[in-house]
């Protein structure tokens, strides 16, 4: 039997993967029809809300299920029904963002979304209100969801409804928020690229995993602050530098004094060399918050930014 016969489901991102500038080419639609005609299931995983998707993609009925709002909503095109997989946005959170002039703000069933450069304002409101929310980036999009919700959790719900496993699934995606579900799929678009010799391949996978991948909850970094009022989860090094830039000058030194950054690099990222370099920065009592940030960012970015 052919190796491909074990895959009974294709799971794909929408923007940047199937669609460009929001539109899907007719040739891509025909290819999806052929996959569906073969008896395989199709699952779409998107950061868009259901309403937004329906306005740009009339052929959504090709898909058996849609994971919308970056994993928070499951939509069935054949029955036109959908269900939330987590709780709705906190009204006070949205109101405060609006009061601060964050715009545009899109509020879905569960997701709140805006665009860069408003991530610092978003993080400050999360911290000040003590909310258990996470910030997820998709290129310039800034998406806010309850902690632990992502395309991976949404895909698991979809596969459970279809009676399938991630081991039966091919995954395709192109951005930071896709790694959560791509890492679960038995085969994904990264796994089919040109193979290098074993040592270089392993290093490449290591860098990609920790630079833009999706670490599990107990391996993630958490900005909690001196009073423990924050709970901002960091799943990879790219997100670490993006979020840390907006962390206030009370919270950042708190984590440095505790050596949280170097401990995370050593235990979760498994990079002792960079952990040692960061520990020296943490031990320096002469650096300002801005200076220590810059030095730690330099230490991590030189190895983990845009890994080859």
Series of H and E elements: EEEHEHEEEHEEHEEHEHEHEEHHHHH
Q: Which geometry do the CA atoms define?
A: globular
- Largest beta-sheet details: 7 strands, mixed
- For the largest beta sheet, what order do the strands appear in spatially? 7-6-5-4-1-12-13
* Low-pLDDT ranges: 190-201
Structural class: alpha/beta
Question: What's a quick, concise take on this entry?
Answer:
By secondary structure, the protein is an alpha/beta fold. Among the domains are: 3-85 and 149-193, Rossmann fold (3-Layer(aba) Sandwich), CATH 3.40.50; 87-147, Alpha-Beta Complex (Hypothetical Protein Ta0175, Chain: A, domain 2), CATH 3.90.1070.
Could you characterize what this model shows?
There is one protein chain. By secondary structure, the protein is of the alpha/beta class. Helices cover 39% and strands 18% of the residues.
How are the SSEs ordered, and which strands pair?
Elements: E1 9-13, E2 19-20, E3 23-24, H1 26-37, E4 41-45, H2 50-56, E5 65-68, E6 73-76, E7 81-84, H3 91-99, E8 106-107, E9 112-115, H4 119-129, E10 133-138, E11 141-146, H5 151-162, E12 169-172, H6 179-182, E13 187-188, H7 198-212, E14 221-223, E15 232-234, H8 237-244, H9 251-257, H10 260-267, H11 272-283, H12 289-304
Helix pairs in contact: 8-12, 10-11, 11-12
